[in-house]
Design goal:
By secondary structure, this protein is an alpha/beta fold. The protein is built from 9 helices and 7 strands. It has a domain of 161 residues.
């Protein structure tokens, strides 16, 4: 393959190969003619004729070569145009691919950012939850410290009792840390009317016995814990019965408040004999839930008693109200009569106004023929009287 200017000659092409062979034959023929130049003139004439024919053939081959060069140029131009179009298509495809990759990367970046933001929020939530758990753990430890000490445990029960009583009863219906005539101080004294009279609520919490009962590992430990639990509750019942039930001063019963629903459920499930002993001693065991229900019943009793105490005043006020209603009825009747008289006066005023209007109209028109109330002698006539 040889490149001549912008034209590329490929010797593998049959046309180019044919032209090359013809050129070689021409050169050989010229060489033979020159070598035989000394031959006769007769022999030269056919040779010249052949050379003319060969020249025509070469001219034809030259024209074919030019046409071939034009075809090659056309092919080259077509190939260049196709190559340029292909390059444009490839560039467009590459631009589309790049745009798609950019959008994909942008979307992935947004999703990644959103995921990281959500992850940070969840981590922040977990941190807050961890902080709350740590705080709750500290509160639990504090509660354990409170319950491990008898004095603080008693204060804890009293605070819970005070909260329940203050929500269930009006402030003047109870007294906290009330001192009785025997010098004993009750956690709460509820001022119920007679009967039954003021009733004492005392807070007790047999925590040690209950924890021993829950932590028993074998039958021997369970039996010992059961005995301790029964003894502790009986001791509380006896103390309340001896200290806070005073004849003529308090009601003939009292309430033992347990600040724990679990202890209350344990007593009624497995120590029903102790609960019955409390009933016999007029000491009723209550939990936070049952205490609230009992206090709501007491509130209804207090409301009924206060209504009975105020029954006389209510009847007196009702009598006065009845008299006020009667006076109001009389005054309404008088007002109605006044309104009736005023209505009649208004009707008469309307009649007088109508008459005055009609009279003014007749005066304006000098029409006195129908006026029966006017004396004929008093009318001033405009024309002299005819005889």
């Amino acid at each position: 393959m040889i490149k001549i200017g912008e034209m590329i000659v490929d010797f593998g092409d049959p046309v180019v190969l044919g032209l090359s062979v013809v050129g070689v034959l021409l050169l050989i023929l010229i060489f033979m003619v020159l070598r035989n130049a000394g031959r006769s003139a007769d022999a030269a004439a056919p040779l010249l004729q052949q050379m003319g024919l060969l020249d025509d053939t070469v001219r034809g081959l030259s024209e074919g070569q030019q046409r071939l060069a034009g075809g090659l140029q056309t092919v080259s131009d077509t190939q260049a145009a196709a190559q340029a179009k292909m390059i444009q298509v490839v560039e467009a495809r590459l631009a589309d691919v790049q745009r798609g990759m950019t959008e994909s990367l942008h979307g992935s970046s947004i999703k990644t950012t959103r995921s990281l933001t959500e992850l940070q929020e969840r981590l922040a939530t977990i941190d807050r939850a961890q902080t709350n758990i740590e705080k709750l753990s500290g509160d639990v430890l504090s509660l354990q410290d409170i319950l491990s000490n008898k004095q603080t445990r008693g204060a804890f029960g009293e605070i819970q009792l005070n909260d329940i009583v203050s929500k269930a009863l009006p402030p003047d219906a109870y007294t906290l840390q009330a001192t009785l005539s025997n010098g004993k101080r009750a956690d709460c004294l509820i001022h119920l009317p007679n009967p039954p009279g003021p009733i004492v609520v005392d807070s007790k919490f047999p925590l040690e016995a209950y924890e021993a009962l829950r932590g028993a590992q074998n039958k021997a430990h369970l039996a010992e814990a059961t005995r301790l639990m029964r003894a502790a509750v009986r001791l509380h019942i006896k103390a309340i019965s001896d200290k806070y039930i005073i004849e003529g001063e308090t009601a003939d019963g009292a309430l033992l408040f347990l600040p724990s629903e679990a202890v209350y459920a344990e007593l009624h499930a497995n120590f029903s004999d102790v609960v019955r002993e409390g009933f016999d001693a007029r000491v009723w065991i209550v939990s936070p839930t049952t205490c609230m229900a009992t206090l709501n019943t007491m509130r209804a009793i207090l409301k009924d008693a206060r209504m009975r105490e105020q029954a006389g005043a209510i009847r007196r006020e009702l009598g006065l109200l009845n008299k006020d209603v009667e006076r109001l009825g009389d005054r309404v009747g008088n007002l109605d009569r006044h309104f009736g008289q005023a209505a009649r006066d208004i009707e008469e005023i309307k009649i007088s106004a109508v008459k005055a209007g009609n009279r003014a109209l007749r005066l304006d028109n000098f029409d006195f023929a129908d006026d029966t109330e006017v004396d004929a002698e008093t009318v001033v006539r405009l024309a002299p009287k005819q005889n």
